[in-house]
Amino acid sequence: MTAENSSLKIIIVDDSPDDQFFIKKALWHFKNIKCQSFYYPEKFLDYISSLKMTELPDMVIIDINMPRLTGFEVIEIARRLDDEDQIKFFILTSALTEIDKCNCKRLNVECFTKPFTPHEFKMTIQNMVTKWKLEKAG
């Protein structure tokens, strides 16, 4: 299957119900997307640690500032579980500091600031999905 016609598995990890709602609403516009979400980073890590390599998500949209674990910590742990480095992480956060930008660069993760309007949310999510598809198309 190509990136164009295969089903895209996306997981959202964000402790904000409102932000999860807007992300899911933005994803609704795309075909062939399977979406799951987690409010707690630990639940996400438990979930992916139980999956086979072929069942891992293609893409994870994750917040930085969450209780107990930061998005950066979650990415580092998840990458140890993903031997083939097949999960593409995108950070979607409301506040982006210089330290956050350095961490994104260190982890080779693209970072986006959370938009304020539903239309901007849709465009940001569309940008993430397009980047994933272009990467897979190679």
Protein described:
- The longest helix is centred in the last third of the chain and has 20 residues, at about 120-135.
- This protein has one domain (about 10-135): Rossmann fold.
- With about 140 residues, it is of the alpha/beta class.
- The chain starts with 7 loop residues before the first strand and ends with a helix.
- The chain is built from 5 helices and 5 strands, in the order βαβαβαβαβα.
Keywords:
138 residues, alpha/beta, Rossmann fold, 5-stranded parallel sheet
Secondary structure: elements and pairs:
Elements: E1 8-13, H1 17-27, E2 33-38, H2 41-49, E3 59-62, H3 71-81, E4 88-93, H4 98-107, E5 110-113, H5 118-137
Parallel strand pairs: 1-2, 1-3, 3-4, 4-5
Task: Give a brief description.
The protein has helices spanning 17-27, 41-49, 71-81, 98-107, 118-137; strands spanning 8-13, 33-38, 59-62, 88-93, 110-113. It has 138 residues and is α/β, with parallel strands linked by helices.
The CATH top-level class label: Alpha Beta
- Please, how many domains? 1
Low-confidence stretches: none
**Biggest beta-sheet profile:** 5 strands, parallel
Percent range for β-strand residues = 15-25%
Spatial gap, N to C terminus: 14 Å
Q: In which order are the strands of the major sheet placed?
A: 2-1-3-4-5
Taking all residues together, what is the mean pLDDT?
Answer: 89
Q: Element order, helices and strands?
A: EHEHEHEHEH
CATH architecture: 3-Layer(aba) Sandwich
Rounded to an integer in angstroms, the radius of gyration calculated over CA atoms is 14 Å
CATH superfamily, by name, is Response regulator
Q: What's the shape?
A: globular
Number of helices: 5
What structural category do the secondary elements indicate?
alpha/beta
